Amino acid sequence: MQDDRALRVRARPTTGRYEPTLLADSVKLQRLTLGFSRTGSMSAGNAGISLDMSVSGVRVDWQATGAGSEYLRATVDAAGRLRAGAGHIVWHTLAAGVSAGDVPVQAGVYFGGPLTGPGYEFHSLAGRSGLSQRIEWQSRVPFLAIDLGRFGRVPSSLVVAPWAHATWLHAPDGGAQGWFPSVGLGAIGLFDLLRVDVGRSVGSRGGRWLLSIDVDRQLWPVL
To answer: Are 120 and 132 in contact (CB under 8 A)?
Structure first.
């Protein structure tokens, strides 16, 4: 049993403002999930494929009305790396969808932000189903070596990664839907652990710049 409700910001920043919390309906959920996972090594220089799939059947009890409903939610998260000439083609696909019917707002499909919609606001692309697709070409090029003292010496090369990204969104309940493309350039260095991306959303609904800094996914659990 899972109890969901909206959160509120109960703090005041010294300057600026806090981002609003995500919308959420007050509901109690019972969930049954079936999943499949296949993990492959995709570190720099290696080819591989990883895949995570899940399908959940959810029973919802709405606290405001006492009514009940059911829905299905499915997700697919896949990534791959293939050698291509002097570099590698790297792709990442994320797809999700919920069935028709009464669904809590927090169970919808949300895209936007550096990973699922570069150049678009975080979670600004919301609907019932969607797809996020990125493809890039990574190639190692010469670069200045950096001496880090007792921590070692950074190799005299880095990986450049021009990329293209497209997010597709289906929002039958209203709101923006269709394709949301973006393009950019990434650089991976510091023992291939640090990545910097600069990009821009394009098309009739684009026009925003992106600057993001991230570390290798293998380090995410310790951050």
So the answer is: no
User: Which residue, 177, 216, 174, is CA-closest to 195?
Assistant: 216
First to last CA, the chain: 29
Model's pTM, two decimal places? 0.84
Return the number of other C-beta atoms located less than 10 Å from residue 213's C-beta.
Answer: 9
Per-residue pLDDT tens over the stretch 66-112 = 889 999 999 999 999 998 888 999 999 999 999 988 899 999 999 99
- The residue behind tokens 């990204």 is 165
Q: Per-residue b/e over 131-153, b at no fewer than 16 CB within 10 Å?
A: bbbbebbbebeeeeeeeeeeeee
Q: How far apart are CA 13 and CA 79, in angstroms?
A: 38
Q: Using an 8 Å Cβ cutoff, are 137 and 87 in contact?
A: yes
23: its two tokens: 């919308």
Query: Domain-by-domain residue ranges, the chain?
Result: 38-57+66-222
CA distance 213 to 187: 10
Q: Within the chain, what is the greatest distance between any pair of CA atoms?
A: 64
SS3 track for 67-100: CEEEEEEEEEEEEEEEEECCEEEEEEEEEEEECC
Check residue 19 and report its DSSP letter. P
Amino acid letter, residue 206? G
